[in-house]
Amino acid sequence: MNRRTVLVDGGIAAMTLAIAMSTLAADGLGTPSPLSTPLDALGVVLAVAASVPLVVRDRAPLAVYTIVAVATLILLVLNYPLDFPLGTAIAAYTVAVRHSGGPDLLRRSACAAVVGFGPVLAVTYLLAGDNLTDIPIELTSLAIMFCAIWITGDRSRLRRERIVALEERAARTEREVEREQRLAAAQERTRIARELHDSAGHAISVILVQAGAARLLHERDREGSIRALHTIEDVARGTMDEISRLVRALREDGQSELTPADPAAIDDLLEGFRSSGLALTSRLDGSPGSVPRSVASAAYRILQEALTNATRHGDGSADVTVRFAPEAVEITVVNPTRATTGTPPTNGGHGIVGMRERAFLLGGTLQAKASGSLYELSARLPHFADRAGVTA
């Protein structure tokens, strides 16, 4: 019981005591009865007993109600002119609020104690020598009032429980939103880590090819060797810049904007592979301007991984077709494979797995197959997820 509750209940108890003392001192609210007992020390003690326990009504509702009700009934039996049992009504309301939703036995007992106060009051007046036929309206009104007190207390309890349930639901919803935000942040960090893997893998493949070319051309073609070294330097510098952006994004919980998100960056990607020595024929159909960011990013990474595989496993050439359709981006990469290395596996390696996952998450399809000495990869990435599967 907090301090505010004590102060409020203390105020209610003081007000109830003041009203009871005033009523007793004035010999009732109406015309004084010749049978009424004037206020004396016993009356003061009973009035205190019928009011002051309300200070702790929230801590022990039934005990307080019992004390207040018994003190009130004794006042009436002794003909003290307490015309309205205000303290009992307040204690009865507290019992209804606290115990109307309790265990069955306790609820029934509390209801009988509150609703039964009306009949007990009639018996009390009869014991005090009053003629019940003279006060039928008063007795009926009091009986109805205590029934209404129980109903009102029960409804108040239900309302409080609904408010508590709504507050708990709001708190639970807030926790779920926070959990979803943390999950989204974790997924974004995973995506950024995958971008880092793709970028680093592509750069290392290019650097390996160019380093090998520089070594082989060092004696026969020094200019070609120098060009290969320049390419290694450019690729390494660009990769370091991209790694710096990705690591910064990881440190910022994925809030930084990542590149590439613009499908126009595909042109730069193709030029990068050409400069690294891959003989590329490319065809881009349609306008990339209306492609969603997620589709554009997936298209870029799938194309980058496919060309990295062509560089690593092919004979140094590839044919690329990218079509920006109104409803999807379609990518096809065809490259001859070296006879000594065979074809890249279609079901193994992180590259194929990563491409599959990107296509699947967008509701698209990805096919990777070898036909003789040619290896073909095709992907379709819809602008809006459909129910298409992913095959390989």
From TrEMBL:
Its EC number is 2.7.13.3. The chain crosses the membrane at residues 35-55, 62-78, 110-129, 135-153. Residues 2-160 form the DUF7134 domain. It comes from the Bacteria. Signal peptide: none annotated. It is an enzyme of class 2 (transferase). It catalyses: ATP + protein L-histidine = ADP + protein N-phospho-L-histidine. Keywords: ATP-binding, Coiled coil, Kinase, Membrane, Nucleotide-binding, Phosphoprotein, Transferase, Transmembrane, Transmembrane helix, Two-component regulatory system. Residues 163-190 form a coiled coil. Residues 188-253 form the Signal transduction histidine kinase subgroup 3 dimerisation and phosphoacceptor domain. This is histidine kinase. It comes from Dactylosporangium roseum.
